[in-house]
Structures are given as structure tokens and as C-alpha cells.
Here is the input.
Amino acid sequence: MMKKLGLAIVVGSALSGPMPLMAHEPVTPLIAQACAGCHGQSGEGLGAVPRIAGKDRAVFIATWEAFRAGEKPATIMNRIAPGYTESEVAALADYFSALRAEP
Ligand code: HEC
Here is the structure.
């Protein structure tokens, strides 16, 4: 009985409004979720995939455009980059440049 009551309270509070955001648990925008499988949930990098969290915004965009143009050697990003509009790339750059994931 007590267990059931506890669960009801947890579920109730989860549904009752926006949860307070934890500083170490940023809510990843939907567009950036596409990157998480390779770059890590917080852009921290995974194995051979480079870290993108905290990357300078202007450098992020310049790197992206170099991928798009085929000017920067790449195994995969040259195929991903053309699929995003300029404003989407700006949003991704805003998001990842502002992230401060643990190294
Ligand atoms: C399938 C795996 C994969 C996905 C998905 C992916 N990346 Fe990458 N990313 C890589 C790899 C691997 C590299 C290294 C360059 C290469 O080989 O293409 C890279 C490089 C980069 C770089 C350059 C980093 C540097 O410092 O040189 C940026 C910026 C980047 N990715 C951003 C993104 C963003 C933003 C997304 C989501 C829209 C994304 N990537 C999705 C695998 C991925």
C-alpha cells in the first residue's frame, strides 16, 4: 500500500508541470539528438568520434561548411552536413558551443 502511494506521488509530480532542470542534465533539443549516438549525449565524444561540446561557435560552423563543401577530410560528416539548413547548423552551433560537458 505504501509503495503504491509513493509511486503515485512520483508520477503525479512528474506530470504536474515542468521539472526543474539539473545543470548537469541539459535537455537536448530534438535536432541535436541525431548527433548523440556518435558524439555522446552531451557532445563529449565517444571513442574515435571527436568531442563537440564547448567547441567555439564560429569554428563549429566553419568546420560544418568545410564538411558540406567536401573540403575537410571526413568519414561520415561530409555525408551528414549537407542535410542541414544554415539555420539548423546555427542552432546546433548555439547548442553545442554552450555545452560544458565533463572532458
Ligand atoms: C554516424 C556518426 C556521426 C553522427 C550521427 C554525427 N557525427 Fe559529427 N562526427 C563524426 C565523426 C566520425 C567525425 C570526425 C570526422 C569524420 O570522420 O567524419 C565527426 C566530426 C564532427 C565535427 C567536427 C569536430 C572537430 O572538432 O573536428 C562536428 C562539428 C560534428 N561532427 C558535429 C556533428 C553534429 C552537430 C551532428 C548532429 C547533427 C553530428 N556531428 C552527427 C560522427 C558523427
